[in-house]
Amino acid sequence: MTVKFSNNASALLDGAITNSATSITLDDVSEFPTLSGTDYTYLTLSNAAATTIEIVKVTAINTSTKVLTAVRAQDSTSASAFADGDICELRLTTALLTDKVNEAAGDGGVAMSIALG
Questions:
Q1: CA dihedral 60, 104, 31, 114 (to 10 degrees)
Q2: Residue 53, C-beta contacts closer than 8 angstroms, at least 6 positions apart
């Protein structure tokens, strides 16, 4: 399993989602990392006012249908409903940093967690 990321990836939701939806359709996925096999990334969903924020773990991105397969409510966030046109971004998160450090430590280093406060 490899955590992937890319710079400044952002898109809008192409349709509303419920708090239990695991398929999320975006208007564009071209800026997001390419995922294959067991690769994954963390994305942040946000309403336009940024009053509701959720981090999701994305395990697949279908580039032809622009659909993400996601595990909801990651990194101490709660699953929420989002509206068509809300924001999906690849942001720096504690989960992304922790997983990347632990991945690098897999070659004999010491696994660690990162606390941001």
A1: 90
A2: 44, 45, 46, 77
Burial label, 36 (beta-carbon count in 10 A; 0-12, 13-18, 19+): exposed
Helix (H, G, I), strand (E, B) or coil at 103: helix
Give the global pTM: 0.89
4: CB partners within 8 A, 6+ apart: 33, 34, 35, 39, 40, 41
- Residue 87 sits at φ, ψ, to 5 deg, of -100, 140
What is the Cα 69 distance to its own chain's centre?
A: 10
Beta strands across the sheet bearing 53-62: 10-12, 87-89, 41-46, 53-62, 67-74, 23-25
Q: What is the pLDDT of residues 53-78, one digit of tens each?
A: 999 999 999 999 999 999 999 999 99
Burial of 42 per CB tally in 10 Å (0-12, 13-18, 19+):
buried
Distance between first and last Cα of the chain: 27
